[in-house]
Design a protein that fits this description.
D-Maltodextrin-Binding Protein, domain 2; 39% helix; 5-stranded mixed sheet; 3-stranded antiparallel sheet; 22% strand; 14 strands; elongated; alpha/beta
C-alpha cells in the first residue's frame, strides 16, 4: 500500500462523501479507491468509514484521522508548490459556497480584483442560501451569517450587515404607510424569508430604545434572498432586507423605506472553513483578500 496515496483517497472520500466521486476526482477506478481505504484501515487497525449501499459515514476515528491527514497533505502540497516554477504563487481550484444576495451584491462584483491578483486560482462558486456540509461536500470555505453552530469550524468575521424595512410604492399606495410596527399586524401584508430546511418565516424585528416588537407570520415567503427582494418590489408585502443590497432599488424608486426609526439588530457575516484547510495557499490568499476588502468597506 502506498500510504500517501491512500491518505489522499481518504481525505477526498470524506470531502465528497462518495467512493465514486473520490475516485473520479483522483482519476482512478472506484475499486482501487475502495481497496486503498481497506488497506489503510488494516494498517491503522481502526475502521475509518462505515459503508452501506447508500452512503459512506465517517467514524469518530475517521474524523480525527481526517483532520491530521488533511493538514499533512496540505503542508506537503505547499512544499511542492514552493519549488515549482512560480514559487509560492497560489494556484488550483477553490470551491466556495455563498448565499445568493452576498454573491450578487458583494462577492461577484469584486472577484475580478481577486482574479487579477491570483490569476492561477480557479473559482468554483456555489450560490445557495442552504447550509452546505463543508467537509462532506468538499467545499473549501463558505460565507455565512448569523449564529454559527459548528464549533469544529473556524469562523472569521467579515462585516455587519444593517437591515431596513421596505415596501414598493404601489403597495404603500394601496395599503398606506405604517407609522408603528404594531400596524403591520392588521391591515398590512408581510413578505418574509425562511431559511432552507425549515418552513418557518424568520421574524421581523423592530427595536427602538427599550421597545421591541417581533412579527413572525407572513403571507408570502421564500428561501432565496434575491427572490425575497423581488417579492417586496412586486408589491406583495412589506419586508426587511439588508440595506446595502437594496440601495439601487431605492435610488430607482422601486422600493421605499418605512419605519426608519425602528432598527433590527445587524447580521454578522463570516467566512467559515475547516481548521485543516488554512495551510491551503489559495484558500489563505482568498481569506486574506476577503478580510482586506471587508476592512476597506468599513
Amino acid at each position: 500500500m502506498n500510504q500517501l496515496i491512500a491518505m489522499r483517497v481518504f481525505v477526498r472520500l470524506v470531502e465528497t462523501g462518495s467512493f465514486s466521486r473520490a475516485a473520479t476526482q483522483l482519476s482512478m477506478p472506484r475499486s482501487s479507491a475502495s481497496k486503498l481505504i481497506y488497506d489503510l484501515e488494516a494498517h491503522l487497525g481502526v475502521r475509518l468509514v462505515q459503508r452501506t449501499t447508500r452512503q459512506v459515514t465517517v467514524t469518530p476515528e475517521g474524523i480525527a484521522y481526517y483532520e491530521h491527514a488533511a493538514r499533512l497533505l496540505s503542508e506537503l502540497d505547499d512544499a511542492d508548490n514552493a519549488i515549482k516554477a512560480h514559487g509560492l504563487r497560489p494556484r488550483g481550484r477553490l470551491r466556495i459556497d455563498v448565499p445568493a444576495t452576498v454573491a450578487q451584491h458583494l462577492l461577484i462584483p469584486a472577484l475580478a480584483d481577486f482574479s487579477e491578483r491570483y490569476p492561477d486560482v480557479e473559482i468554483a462558486l456555489g450560490v445557495s442560501d442552504r447550509q452546505v456540509n463543508i467537509v462532506g461536500e468538499g467545499v473549501d470555505c463558505v460565507i455565512r451569517g448569523g449564529a454559527l453552530g459548528d464549533p469544529l469550524l473556524v469562523a472569521r468575521k467579515l462585516t455587519d450587515l444593517e437591515y431596513g424595512t421596505y415596501a414598493s410604492p404601489e403597495y404603500l399606495a394601496r395599503r398606506g404607510v405604517p407609522g408603528h410596527p404594531e400596524e403591520l399586524r392588521d391591515g398590512h401584508v408581510i413578505a418574509g424569508y425562511f431559511a432552507p430546511g425549515t418552513e418557518r418565516p424568520a421574524a421581523m424585528v423592530f427595536e427602538r430604545g427599550a421597545e421591541r416588537f417581533e412579527i413572525s407570520s407572513a403571507k408570502f415567503t421564500t428561501n432565496d434572498g434575491e427572490a425575497h427582494v423581488s417579492l417586496i418590489k412586486a408589491g406583495l408585502g412589506i419586508g426587511q432586507h439588508f440595506a446595502p443590497f437594496v440601495q439601487t432599488a431605492l435610488e430607482r424608486g422601486e422600493l421605499v423605506e418605512v419605519l426608519a426609526g425602528w432598527k433590527r439588530p445587524a447580521f454578522s457575516l463570516h467566512v467559515v472553513y475547516p481548521p485543516g484547510k488554512l495551510r491551503n495557499a489559495r484558500l489563505t490568499a482568498f481569506i486574506d483578500w476577503l478580510l482586506e476588502r471587508a476592512q476597506q468597506a468599513c
